[in-house]
Amino acid sequence: MSKVTIACFIFSTILLIGTGVYFLVISELGAAIGFWCGSALFIYLVAVKALYHRRNNSLPRILILVTVAVIFAALLAIFVISLLIDSFNDFVGFSIFYLGLVALAAVYTVINVFNDFRNSKHVIYSLALIFSQNFPH
Fold first, then answer.
1. What is the tally of structural domains in the chain?
2. What is the pLDDT of residues 18-34, one digit of tens each?
3. What global pTM score does this model have?
4. Residue 24 is part of which domain span?
5. Are residues 47 and 66 in the same domain?
């Protein structure tokens, strides 16, 4: 890594810790923990993205599964914390959890459809075929 990358990483880490301490002092413990966990998740995802580019746009299957599990665990933690902490609305926690699950499903779907179209030589799904008279019943 270059010196600029290392300097940016150190500066951003100090900034993240400082913002978390600010939340801890000014706000409440839940906000600070949420900010630190969100920051850790963001750093993890940036590291996975960097590894993806370093390995010529590919990742090992186990790392993909671990990443999905980490994201799901974070969403589940948000939902459970919303049920346990009185200052965090239950509806908001469930909404964040559900939005995250739908986003994961949408990303999975888009990736699969994109790969199908990219790897084929012709159009896979054609409305003309579906609505034609010659469509097998």
1. 2
2. 887 887 788 777 777 77
3. 0.65
4. 1-56
5. no
